[in-house]
Amino acid sequence: MSGAHDVDVGALADRVEAFVRDVVVPYEKDPRCGAHGPAEDLVVELRQKARAAGVLTPHILPDGGHLTQRETATVLIRSGLSPLGPTAVNTMAPDEGNMYLLGKVGTAEQKAHFLDPLVSGDARSAFFMTEPAAEGGAGSDPSMMQTICRMDGNHWVINGRKAFITGAEGAKVGIVMAKSEETGGACMFLVDLPHPAITLDRILDTIDSSMPGGHAVATISNLRVPADQMLGEAGEGFKYAQVRLSPARLSHCMRWLGACIRANEIASDYACRRMAFGKPLIDHEGVGFMLAENLIDLRQAEQMIYWCADVLDSGSLGTVESSMAKVAVSEALMRIADRCVQVMGATGVSGDTIVEQVFREIRAFRIYDGPTEVHKWSLAKKIKRDHKAANA
To answer: Does 173 share its domain with 291?
Structure first.
């Protein structure tokens, strides 16, 4: 399937892959890669090189349009071949999802002010939706949202707490989600960051370490936002969240599939070179069969991604399909990453290769953008609704 543009997506994906393998991979040992993601100066350096190579923000067309989801998959899988790849070429979460939402919902003025710096790679963004679980806030159930907004003249005033806000530290663009005090409906607001009314209380120590800025806990105190910085219409925030989250779930699948392809390459090379009991590890069935299972899971994950991409390209919101893809792909990639560690033994749990990091990243992926169990529960509810409708 091809979009209405002149871009040779296959050639573009090849250029992205060459850039990631040749330029980005050597940075994986850079000391600026920390527990809370790559440092800001490293992000800038990598993006300068991506810009020079013509592969920065490759999923956004020169005219501001977007590749189809199928085409996006072809490109984003390649960008994920290194944990640093999506950051380098500007396909990383949450920016990629925020760009998509702004492109769909933002006004011309909002796009010029907030979207253009993201597309150019000159700014990062944060999506302020999730709230602290210990305080009863919204997580997988956004209806539990406690952050509130109210009109005050020509401004909205927002108060609340947010948690696990990826990339908030160092971000220049914020999308803040809050519940209207008057109507109870959700609203989204665009905010220039940093902002004195948004305090980053702490950066959480988490199992993953690939996303710039880490994951923050934030307090929002009397944040005043001009009415023209509301994203979309008042009360439609939950609908816009689905516009963003369905393709964003799939984009995660794309990027992390790329990482697992690379991890499997490393594990396979290790198994073919490492000798044990008189022969290469690959010749021991216990090892060879694990790598064979990896090939099967990799192909099935790829097919699930392209199937869901085609559904989204058909114009469907794709919430059911993206839930299926999130479950199937995240669980398959977890099996792959785990096998790669196991095949490599002690080397697999060391920092000598990226296999250990990929394992950590995929473990986190099974939770964010909806844990496996939440998506299965949602799918089970659909089965019940469909059964009831068919037997009414």
So the answer is: no
